[in-house]
Amino acid sequence: MQQIQQGNYLAALPALRDQGVDVLVVGKTLTRAAGEPMETYAGIKTIMTQGQIDARLIRVDTGEILAAKSFVAAAGGSAQDIAESKAVQQAAQKAGAFFALEIAKLPAATTQKVLLSIKGLNYNRERALREVLQGVPGIKKIHRLVYRNLVAQYEITFAGKADDLAAALSDSKNLKGFGFEVQGVSSGKIEAKAK
After folding, report:
1. Separation in Å, CA 115 to CA 12, 146, 157, 178, 187
2. Rounded to whole angstroms, how far apart are CA atoms 46 and 83?
3. In this structure, are residues 159 and 169 in contact, taking their beta carbons and an 8 Å threshold?
4. How many helices (H) and strands (E) does the chain have?
5. Which spans in the chain are helix H?
6. What is the CA radius of gyration of the chain?
7. Which pLDDT value is given to residue 5?
8. Which of 7, 87, 173, 179 lies most in the core, judged by the most C-beta atoms within 10 Å?
9. What's the rounded Cα separation, in Å, for the pair 58 and 65?
10. In this structure, what DSSP letter does residue 180 have?
11. Partner residues linked to 70 by β-bridges
C-alpha cells in the first residue's frame, strides 16, 4: 500500500499478483471551490465544491494500463469539508460505474502465469528438470527467468490455478527422481526444492 500511495504501483504488482489480485484501480482526488458560497433557505450558506478523480485501471499480471479517465462532480454543503466529501463521493460513483464496465470487458483467463522458484539444482540438473517440467499436464509454456546460486526461476503458463499446478508437480512421477518437493504456494508463486 505504501508503494501504491507513493505512486509506484509497479513495485506493488508482484505482491498483489501473489495475493490473487487481477486488476488494480489507482488514482488521486482533488477538490476546489466552485464559486462563491450561496445563501439558501433560512439564511444558511451553502459552499459549492468541485471534486475530481483521475484514475487508471491496471492489469496486475502485465502492468498494462487498461483504461484511464478523469471524473468530475460538484456538490454543496454547509461546510467546506462536507462539500468536498460529497463532491468526491459523486465523482467516485461515476468512476466505479465506468471501471466496472471496463473490468467486465476483460476476457476470462483460461490460463494463469505462475512463478516457480526451485532451490538446490546444479546447472545440468536444472536443464534436465526443465525438460521434465514441459511434460507436466496443464503446463502450456515454460520460460526460465534466471538461474543463479543453484536457484532457478521459471514463469509458467498453466491451465489452472497455482494450487492445481503445485498438485500436478507434486504428483509427477518424473519429478520424483529430482527429489522435487513443494515448500510454499501462493496464488501467483510456488516455491520448491530439488536434490
Report:
1. 16, 11, 9, 19, 10
2. 8
3. no
4. 6, 9
5. 2-5, 9-18, 80-104, 123-133, 162-171, 173-176
6. 25
7. 74
8. 87
9. 5
10. -
11. 54
Residues near 141 by beta carbon (within 8 Å), at least 6 away in sequence: 156, 157
127-135: long-range contacts, CB 8 A cutoff, minimum separation 24: 128/178, 129/175, 129/178, 129/180, 129/194, 130/154, 132/172, 132/174, 132/175, 132/178, 133/169, 133/175, 135/174
Q: Which of 186, 114, 185, 109 is nearest to 156 (CA)?
A: 114
Q: Torsion angle of alpha carbons 136, 132, 149, 163, nearest 10°? A: 10
DSSP-derived letter for residue 108 is P
The answer to whether residue 193 scores a pLDDT higher than 90 is yes
**Residues forming beta bridges with residue 47, ordered by sequence position:** 77
Of 6 and 132, more confident: 132
Instruction: Tell me the pTM.
Output: 0.55
Rounded Cα distance between 114 and 128, Å, is 20
In this structure, are residues 57 and 68 in contact, taking their beta carbons and an 8 Å threshold? yes
Residue 42: count other Cβ atoms within 10 Å of its Cβ.
5
